[in-house]
Amino acid sequence: MFVCLIYLSVIKVQAAGKPVSQDSIRPGQVWPDSDGNHIQAHGGGIIKIKRTYYWYGEQRGKGLDPKFRYVSCYSSKDLTNWKFMGNVVKMLPPDTLSDKWVLERPKVFYNAGTKKYVMYFHLDDRGYKIAQVGVATCDKPDGEYKYVKRFRPLGHESRDIGQFIDDDGTAYLVFEDRPFGFRIARLSKDYMDVEKEMTLVKAHMEGGAIVHYQGLYYSIGSALTGWNANPNKYSTAPTLEGPWTAFKDIAPVLTNTYGSQSTMLIKVVGTKKTTVIFMGDIWKPKTQYDSRYLWMPLEIGDGKLWLPEPKPWKLNIKTGETSFSKN
Ligand code: DGJ
Asked: What is the pTM of this model?
């Protein structure tokens, strides 16, 4: 049985290279892009520009030049079929950083005022001691992003970052500040700085993600267990400033969030239904190119949130409705 499973997953990886169209999102499985290659957008973030979604993430594909750090960009109209638009960041260590630096969890915000795409990412050394964000900008969503600067937001340590754009368009950065908890802070008008702290949630959590749903803010985070999965938890608040409730499990504790870690919550407002998607990473630290994704529509409302057992599902991007698929 074990040999058989390994064999099947090799077959899937080898199938890469053929044009592929998806009818379902299959949590935990290889997710082929439109060229048939497993999507490389780990620890990612998603923005919607008109009718197109852009997914940015850590490019951890095989055969990359180890001198560089890469951020990939994919585009989609339906959140299911993704086209690889290229690596929008291919970067050497900035200024005085050694070549053993880390670029993780890129998030892009579009600033309608400056018409710039502003990327934030977690910038660090391999010991995760620098704890800063890096900022890079571009004039288009899928062009070459130019590095601008690095800093600690509002002077605080920042490791995992998350992005949140509220219904009124205001952009926020969520960042893990190891000594204290995690912070939610508003970006400056041009998005080039982190300007105002909304809240410090005194819980030691990373992989921070937020959604505003039916008048309530929901935040999800994971415990600090490196690449290993743990039981992710959620909290709610009437405003971003809080007060935030005590954290509760989002899935049966023993499943360790079905082996995944939160990255983002995506709200799809359809003509019939608003669906909130949990977007998580299933990390494979020894073979990161094969890390997977766990995307599932959440059961959410009235202050409760639950991640159902993962299985293949379909999203109707127009109506917002979801259904389970046969495979
Ligand atoms: C957990 C974080 O969520 C990941 O982004 C990464 O930084 C790992 N820790 C590194 O161990």
From this structure: 0.94
